[in-house]
Amino acid sequence: MSRHVVAHTDDIPEGGARQVEVKGRRIGVFKVNGEFFALLDKCPHEGASLCRGRLVGLAESDMPGEYSLSREGEMLRCPWHGWEFDIRSGQSYCDPANTKVKQFAVTVEDGATLAKGPYVAETFPVSIEQNYVVVEV
Fold first, then answer.
1. Which of 98, 103, 97 is nearest to 76 (CA)?
2. How would you class 104 by CB atoms within 10 Å of its CB: exposed for 0-12, middle for 13-18, buried for 19 or more?
3. How high is the mean pLDDT of the chain?
4. What's the CA gap between 70 and 73, in Å, rounded?
5. Cα-flanking dihedrals φ and ψ of residue 28, to 5°?
6. Which pairs from 126-132 meet CB under 8 Å and 24+ separation?
7. Coil, strand or helix at 110
8. 9-135 carries CATH number 2.102.10.10
9. What is the spatial distance between Cα 104 and Cα 29, in angstroms, rounded to a whole number?
10. Does the predicted model carry a pTM greater than 0.90?
């Protein structure tokens, strides 16, 4: 698995998303309550961009006519047909047994750590022979 720097933490607003491309894949990176999540930016139902969807809460009900809202902002609603996916796992709430959005691991790292070397330039021995510069490769 390879790692890719895709955004600065301030580039993604709270409750928002950013579409990035990594190795030819469109990936949606979401920020919810200060945490970052990454899902394939393609609804498995009919291919809509999930980055254009809304982050909503989970509506739960014990009986008809009564419901409660929990996990505010942790459910991603597809913009085309309203299918909902758990932002933490990619699991579908419309078809949980068969449908899931591909999830990618996300970490937040300090820029100084990412830029830390050692960076070593490739060097070649050089010598001067009768006024000619010779580089050995």
1. 103
2. middle
3. 85
4. 9
5. -100, 125
6. none
7. coil
8. yes
9. 9
10. no
Which stretches of 1-137 are assigned E, i.e. beta strand?
17-22, 25-32, 35-40, 54-63, 66-77, 84-86, 103-104, 126-129, 132-135
Measured distance CA(93)–CA(34) in Å, rounded? 23
Going by pLDDT thresholds of 50, 70 and 90, the confidence category of residue 77 is very high
pLDDT tens column, 16-68: 999 999 899 999 999 999 999 999 999 988 889 999 999 998 888 888 988 88
What's the token pair of residue 88? 């933490």
For the chain, the structural domain boundaries read 9-135
Name which of 62, 61, 91 is nearest 74 in CA terms.
Answer: 91
Torsion sign across C-alpha atoms 33, 18, 24, 92: positive
Phi, psi values for residue 95, rounded to 5°: -145, 70
